[in-house]
From TrEMBL:
This is Programmed cell death protein 6. It comes from Callorhinchus milii (Ghost shark). Gene3D superfamilies: EF-hand. GO terms for cellular component: endoplasmic reticulum membrane; endosome; ER to Golgi transport vesicle membrane; nucleus. It holds the Pfam family WBP-1. Its main location: membrane.
């Protein structure tokens, strides 16, 4: 039996002229297919297989990253509960931190206090300050109204999360953290509309400016980022006493750009999460000794109230 004869195929070329194809594949008018690249279906099948493999690998990677983020969040929750052993008994309100900072002892000792002015002069100064504050308040309100109208692109009277994210800047030319925007909207949205009106926007604007002033105090090189040591100094000034290991976890958790540093918007999100964790911890720390004993279900309730 001739195997080469079985592999031949009768093909028809120009003017229906028949010719035998040695490879068994008819391609051209007078020639046969001799290379695999001429078999289009062969490469099509392998292309589909390669695309399916890439999709499966991408999906597996996303699932793996999500599990790592959840594990990291659980570690942060546990470290926060263990590290919050010392804190003040009053709720921590960081928005007024800049106004409550006391002068240094050397500054007070080196400048003896001057006698107060007469009562009439003091009263006149207070009236002038009140008038100046009212005038500045009207100017600021007019400026903020113009800002509000620019941000409210759909003219609905309410700034949504997307509109606020597009308007805010973290100083690094990257989009503002959507989790931070969502947290800010949730803090000032009193009517649960998914956005803030102008009156709520006034409080939100002041809240962001207060955080920006605090952030600039520790961003000494004006890079738009703070490192682990600067974050430790900031949180220590707020009353937190945490370990270096925990500060490393915070940086790795809230560092979205992989620089080993935290940007302004991520710094806000970090402080908001810490404050929420501390508030939840205080609810169970009834004797105010920095230790709590909770059941597994209570622990899950604490975590899911924050996540």
């Amino acid at each position: 039996m001739d195997f080469h004869a079985e592999a031949k195929e009768l093909c028809f070329g120009v003017n229906e002229q028949p010719y035998w194809c040695e490879t068994g594949y008819c391609c051209g008018e007078t020639e046969c297919c001799t290379y695999y690249y001429e078999l289009w279906w062969f490469w099509l099948v392998w292309t589909i297989i390669l695309m399916l493999s890439c999709c499966c690998a991408y999906r597996h990677r996303r699932v793996k990253l999500r599990l790592q983020q959840e594990q990291r969040q659980r570690e942060i929750s546990l470290m926060a509960y263990q590290g919050a052993s010392t804190y003040t008994t009053q709720p921590l309100d960081l928005r007024f931190w800049t106004n409550c900072k006391l002068p240094a002892y050397e500054e007070v000792a080196g400048h003896p206090p001057t006698p107060p002015p007469p009562y009439s002069e003091l009263q006149q100064q207070q009236q002038q300050q009140q008038q100046q504050q009212q005038h500045n308040g009207l100017q600021d309100q007019g400026f903020l109204w113009a800002v509000f109208q620019r941000v409210d692109r759909d003219r609905s009277g309410v700034i949504s999360e997307n509109e606020l994210q597009q308007a805010l800047s973290n100083g690094t030319w990257t989009p503002f953290n959507p989790k931070t925007v969502k947290s800010l909207i949730g803090m000032f949205d009193r009517n649960n509309r998914g956005g803030v009106d102008f009156n709520e926007f006034l409080g939100l604007w002041k809240y962001i400016n207060d955080w920006q002033n605090i952030f600039r105090n520790y961003d000494r090189d004006n890079s738009g980022f703070i490192d682990k040591n600067e974050l430790k100094q900031a949180l220590t000034s707020f009353g937190y006493r945490l370990s270096d290991q925990f500060y490393g976890i915070l940086v790795s958790k809230f560092d979205r750009q992989g620089r080993g540093q935290i940007a302004f918007d991520d710094f806000i999100q970090c402080c908001i999460v810490l404050q929420r964790l501390t508030d939840v911890f205080r609810r169970y720390d009834t004797d105010q000794d920095g230790w709590i004993q909770v059941s597994y279900e209570q622990y899950l309730t604490m975590v899911f109230n924050i996540v």
